[in-house]
TrEMBL record:
Protein keywords: Signal
Domain ABC-type transport auxiliary lipoprotein component: start-end pairs: 34-197
Signal peptide: 1-23
Name of this chain's protein: ABC-type transport auxiliary lipoprotein component domain-containing protein
Species this protein is from: Desulfocicer vacuolatum DSM 3385
Amino acid sequence: MKKKFMHIRLVVFILLFCINAMGCQGKTPSVSFYALTPIAVPQNTSGGQGRLENVSIGIGPIHFPRTLQRPQIVTRPSANRLDLSEFHRWGGDLKQDFLNVLVQNISIITGSNQIFKYPWSPSFKPRYRVTLDVIQFDGRLGDTVLLNSIWEIKQGEPGNEKSEIKRSIIEQPISGEDYNALVKAKSDALKTLSVKITDKITVMDGT
């Protein structure tokens, strides 16, 4: 009788252990959400470049690769492979986030409050219009982010305008091994692109 009781206790213990183990395995890791961040506004200064404070600039439209138009953050562990993280996602639409931050950056750099994203109001007549084709905007965890884009700046009214087309390949080191460091590096790469675009507009505006 005692042996039978011990056997029952052992079976119950094993069953409870298995149920507990299955419960632990069934817990899904929480999802983390990320967003690109604009550059910081310089303290105690207007942050503008002076010459462009009263210049109107329209940003967009922007074209994004289809591989990036998804909620999961995409990394590139090798040249021909893409990884999608189910547990590290964008808090919104990456394409729109990119455009919003680009507008904020250029507004902060120039000090102008006349920077608007596409589509803008018909009453808005920008002196400069910037369109972008983003070819690559990904990276390898713990390594670098690559922002490869072609952008065009048009000056003047449609049909009577001059334009400049540039290509920027920006490699931004990632100062960490996690996704937070990856997203920060993406924001830094976008900051560099914002400076390049603003510098070109400054040159065009001075000619």
